């Protein structure tokens, strides 16, 4: 190879190498910023806590309590797995419940990587079939959950902060309208290029919302059951705090709301005379059982299916253009 050919090849390859380097730098910088933000938020929360009392919530008193909490955790996983399973099937993916379960747990592993937990969409790479269809199911699930979570967070906000009643009611109305008119989104050109039209229907919306409501009830019951072992608070008061705290998961600069959630728990549970120690230890316990443990299970499946993941990464999110006849 002569000098001219070598220089020509270097010119062709160097931009690609530069773009990859910049991409890795951005990812590393983003993760570093997340870690720094989480560190300072957790430091702020722990500064309000007596560490000698922090472990109180983890003394679950009896095997009966451990059994009840385990049943609640498993029940929530099952409801969420079937919710995603039905969405996949409605969008034309032929999949059994075992493979849906694997993809579900893999999604939790990726959920901790990108601010706001949006990397959960990576679970579609562990689903056989057209990735555009899997992405459609995930997109619909995320959108409906977003509307539902904002709606209930707004209702909780109205209860907790009545002085801002008008703002929270307005947010609740807008998010509820998003649920009601969700099937109409298929008429938007951009959405029509990414998703199958048949996935936008009221039967799917109602079923997804009902399963999501069951999941929210189970999560709140987890909080209430653990709190009730050490404090006096009603189920509905717990629900108001929990629903508002869950909104922290959509904040796009922490690991699934870590740090923000603990500070909110201290403040909101403090409104009902619960200690800072109880609020922080409770949210950490729920974070471990509902996010970290599923993520650990997901890592096992990811390592077991590394080859499948690599072969699945080459695809396009765009719907294929229909062939025209001349």
Structure in words:
Helix 3 crosses helix 5 (131-160) and helix 5 crosses helix 8. The chain has one domain. The protein has 326 residues and is mainly α. It starts with a helix and ends in a 14-residue tail after the last helix. The protein has helices at residues 3-46, 51-54, 63-90, 97-111, 131-160, 165-180, 189-194, 202-228, 235-246, 260-270, 276-304, 306-312. Helices cover 70% and strands 0% of the residues. Mean pLDDT is 78; it is low at 313-318 and 320-326.
Q: Helix and strand string, N-terminal first?
A: HHHHHHHHHHHH
Which structural class fits the helix and strand makeup? mainly alpha
Number of domains: 1
Rounded to the nearest angstrom, the distance between the terminal CA atoms is 47 Å
Number of strands: 0
Quickly count the helices: 12
Name its key features.
single chain, 326 residues, mainly alpha, 12 helices
How are the SSEs placed, and which strands pair?
Blueprint: H1 3-46, H2 51-54, H3 63-90, H4 97-111, H5 131-160, H6 165-180, H7 189-194, H8 202-228, H9 235-246, H10 260-270, H11 276-304, H12 306-312
Helix pairs in contact: 1-10, 3-4, 3-5, 3-8, 4-11, 5-6, 5-8, 5-9, 8-9, 8-11, 9-10, 10-11
Please summarize what this structure is.
This protein is an all-alpha fold and 326 residues long. The protein has twelve helices and no strands.
